[in-house]
Design brief:
- By secondary structure, the protein is α+β, with helices and mostly antiparallel strands.
- The protein has a domain of 79 residues: Beta Barrel (OB fold (Dihydrolipoamide Acetyltransferase, E2P)), CATH 2.40.50.
- The protein has one helix and six strands, in the order H-E-E-E-E-E-E.
- 10% of the residues are buried.
């Protein structure tokens, strides 16, 4: 009797991970989740209107990093109105907030907003 209960307990311990893993795999993977959105706030290092390339200097903890973003042709500027790339002009030193998503070619901006910084 003692060996039987020990065998049952051992079998239950060995099968528990299999049973719990199988239950997780039964959930449908139906709808694809939306691509994650990234928001960067930083200082413009360089902007090329012809290609729509924007380099931002952002702060990450105690370090700085440069983020390269390509502006989408239908990127929204400021108040949410659609703007063409030719109409967007940034110069080095402008502070901007960029909402973007990752693609196979890199980060693509969906919305760009210039942030007014008070002059000292």
């Amino acid at each position: 009797m003692h060996c039987t209960s020990r065998a049952v307990a051992l079998t239950a311990m060995l099968l528990l991970p299999v049973v719990t893993h199988a239950a997780v795999d039964r959930h449908p993977q139906g709808a694809a989740q939306p691509a994650p959105s990234y928001t960067y706030q930083g200082t413009v290092r360089a902007f090329t209107a012809k290609t729509g390339a924007l380099d931002l200097i952002t702060g990450v903890g105690m370090a700085l990093r440069i983020v390269h973003v390509t502006l989408a042709p239908a990127a929204h500027a400021g108040g949410g109105t659609a703007a063409r790339l030719a109409g967007l002009e940034f110069k080095a030193g402008d502070v901007v907030r960029v909402e973007c998503h990752r693609t196979a070619t890199g980060l693509v901006a969906d919305r760009v907003e210039r942030i007014e910084v008070p002059k000292p």
